[in-house]
Amino acid sequence: MQAKLHRWAAADPGRRFDDLFNLVYDPATLLVAFDRVAGNRGANTPGVDGLTVADVEERIGVSGFLDDLRAAVKDGSFRPLPVKERKIPKPGGSGKVRKIGIPVIADRVVQAALVLVLEPIFEADFLPVSYGFRPLRRAHDAIAEIHHFGTRGYRWVLDADIEAA
């Protein structure tokens, strides 16, 4: 599905995608989204409902959980819950903290499903030299590329926002 969406978006930049909502709640999309959430480092961190991925697997069952989630998204009754806010220390031992939000598992799965459907469409519009918030492209990769070309005599004017990289 993602390859097709990307191919269509790249072939026709003005293309209108009318039926994406059905792809979001498609059982295959939700299963892949759940697998991504389950494989994430935060899978053991509960949201405001207290459920972890393991709890969903053991108490509810993945298929029942996804069936209920699919029905709620499809009929429009799905509503995201508030996120649990936590403060974690910033790297570097500065003593500063940053706030993170921890969504419930259902919200994470829906977010992952949306990414699966929307990302290939928007990716088609990005240039290869764009690094912000893209798959397999980190701020460190942008810095490495700047260093690579900068040490080979290139003289470019660069616009980069690499704060907290």
What does this molecule look like?
- The chain is mainly α.
- 48% of the residues lie in helices and 7% in strands.
- It has helices spanning 2-11, 20-24, 27-38, 53-60, 62-75, 105-123, 139-150, and strands at residues 84-89, 97-102.
- Strands 1-2 form a two-stranded antiparallel sheet.
- A hairpin with a 7-residue loop joins β1 and β2.
- α3 (27-38) packs across α5 (62-75) and α3 packs across α6.
- The mean pLDDT is 86.
- What is the general shape? flat
Structural class: mainly alpha
> Beta fraction of the residues?
5-15%
Main beta sheet: strand number and arrangement? 2 strands, antiparallel
Sequence stretches where pLDDT stays below 50 over 5 or more residues: none
Mean pLDDT: 86
